[in-house]
Specification:
Layout lengths: L5 H7 L6 E4 L8 H4 L3 E4 L10 H7 L4 H11 L1
C-alpha cells in the first residue's frame, strides 16, 4: 500500500473523517494509517488460548463492541 501512488492512497483513505481499523492480530503497523483520527481494535497480547469466539468476545471483536467504538468516533 505504501508503494502505491499518492492519488490511490488518498482514494482508499480520504483525508476527512474518522478511521477505525479492525485487525485480529497486532495493531502496531496500522496506527500510521489512522493518523490520529480514530483507533485500531486488535490484539496486542500473546499467549491466550481459547476458541476463536471466546477470544473475539474477550478482545471486543463483536458487532456490538465495534459499533460502539465507531459511534464514539463520530
Amino acid at each position: 500500500f505504501d508503494r502505491q501512488p499518492a492519488e490511490y492512497r488518498a482514494h482508499v483513505l480520504p483525508q476527512h473523517g474518522a478511521r477505525l481499523v479492525i485487525e485480529a492480530g497486532a495493531t502496531g503497523g496500522w496506527w500510521r494509517y489512522v493518523e490520529g483520527r480514530g483507533t485500531v481494535l486488535g490484539i496486542d497480547e500473546f499467549g491466550h488460548s481459547a476458541p476463536a469466539k471466546v477470544l473475539f468476545e474477550h478482545f471486543g471483536f463483536t458487532v456490538a463492541a465495534v459499533v460502539a467504538t465507531a459511534k464514539k468516533l463520530l
